[in-house]
Write a structure and sequence with these properties.
PH-domain like; single chain; eight-stranded antiparallel sheet; MTMR12-like_C; sarcoplasmic reticulum; MTMR12_PTP; four-stranded mixed sheet
Amino acid sequence: EIHIKEPIEKEVNPRLLPGELLLCEASTVYKYIQEDGSNRGTYGKLVCTNFKISFLDDDSTSDDNEPQFKNKIVGENDITLQCVDQIYGVYDEKKKLLTGQQRKYPEKLIIYCKDLRVFNFCLRYTKEEEVKRIVSGIVHHSQTPKLLKRLFLFSYASAAPNNTDGRNQTVMFETLEDWRDELERTKGNVKYKAVATNEGYRVSEKLPLYFVVPICISEESILKYEGRGIPIWCWSCHNGAALLKMSAFPKEQDDSTSQMQKAFLDGICKTISKPPYELLKMDDLSSSLPSLQDIQTAYTRFKQLFLIDNSTDFWATDVKWFSLLESTNWLEIIRRVLKKAVEVVECLEIQHTNVLLIEESATDLCCVISSLVQVMMDSYSRTKSGFQSLIQKEWVIGGHGFLDRCNHLHKTEKEEAPVFLLLLNCVWQLVQQYPPAFEFTETYLTVLSDSLYVPIFSTFFFNSQHQRDTNTSGESLKTQSGPFRFLTVWDWSVQFDPKAQAFLNNPLYAEKPKPDKSQRKTARFKHQRQLSLPLTQAKPSTKRGFFREETDHLIKNILGKRIGKFINSSDEPPNSLREFYDSWHSKPVDYHGLLLPRIDGPEIKVWAQRYLRWIPEAQLHGGGTIATAAKILDLMEEVQSLQVKMDEEHSQAVSGDVHSVPMLRNSARLSSLFPFALLQRQSVKPALPTSTWKDLEDEDDLVKRDDEFVDLSGDML
């Protein structure tokens, strides 16, 4: 039975952005609300433009019950074409993946999104011609390969007025001066220099226009092998040790070429190992970290846990949550990446050794590790502007292939890998372990991950600075007179008004170091679904080293299983690394000093706000961290108002720069996954449990013991 709501009579038109064109539409489309297994929903119009797929109902134009946290570009019922992951059609209750031209058109359409939303549309009451147009249009515009210049990015840039507020403090690293300032900030200008050798991209199209190398490296050396084999500076530690990266030479070379390249490399390494430079340690990330294919496979499995159609599916998977989570290997990859970053930190901080990260292109895992090391060691990178500058330096200008890794053009899935998402997941682990150390919140990280799929910003839609520069000129478009002026994602006013932007800033950020031991003991909150793997007794290994490498055979056996101990390459001194790790964790945290993540098995958690925000069954209404945050924010608001009154009493001018605090009234109504979860959505455990659940309820097992504190009805604890 479908609870039918009368179709809307009034005409509802989509709100179009500059350059956005309506391509096709269908009326009398029924959108299901998958909340409790019923087929409740609402009628409306489904439209497809050159920017998004959008569902419009009679509430779309209403400003009633406007959410506190609203995106001005992408609405609740909008899906950008780049955000579409897979589209399924339902034929006689059977799901079929839709690609290319369709012979028969489905009665239901299911759209899975890269931000993990799931949309269910019933087309049974829609005219046949409209069904053909809308299904064909959606599949064609979101799934078929396209040219770069066909991205909405270019349509928007040519039509939209560029009137950003200009208050963005992010360093873009597009000039030689930016690099020199960064060298000066990190005291690296004694041993390293910013070079303009690649102006006009005469060295390599993969390298940025400007970058930093050791002073002893000559311009001829940079030009010799198109920038390969050259150590490029990332960051300098306070003690003078530096983090460097290098793109490796291709492995398939004839002997003479290989010998020449080896001699060249040896010469470079000898040069930068002499004083005034510190000792050099080289780390080939392709052999010490999972491959991009492994990362993609793990994430593909992981995201399936959250692309849930209905309540029944949720409760069916809930009983085997730990085993499903463990089998994806995603949390283990996060743990290994964090552990690798800890190794690099130990070399820089304790051993005073330069670290040279090596990768085939130095634009994937090199970006992840170098960014994490800077977040851990440099408190500037934990501010909002500092973190954004870091992403610009290491990823955008550093040449990470966002276009290929996110598969924005749908050309090939072979290059696709969630490398940037991996970084954000790792940073989130640090944010949730040490909240006062970061000026930004987990909500900031979540909207940053969503912005990967919003093609009005150039930040995440090119493979390199060269590709962006060559496509910035409008010469190939007859209608375009001048160069494109792309927006940057760092101007948050484009997506959010000031009230919503307040959710991106951490009100509890420690402005100054506070060596108070009690600050380390942050409150822990129980979630409806436990988000980390339990620590169980594992069979002891013959090698008990804390950071000891197991044999290759053993690694093959245990990859994909929970590992409670660290695993590291055998040539590392395990004792010194363990001492460093244990020693740091035994002391109070300096939120403006070095930060080391806790990386034992249960400490690595699922990023609940990003992955569970669309699943009502996983939400605690009036519970979770948001309940505490609401009380703290109310208190801060009261303190601010009292401060204003005191200033008025003393006739002092009130600074207009008081940070606005978002109003979180009625915290009992808020979900634990606020500000994303909808307040009105509720879900209950099925009255008739699945057979698996029933079987498990009859046993006194781990599920019962681990979840005994959980009220599965979703009410307040």
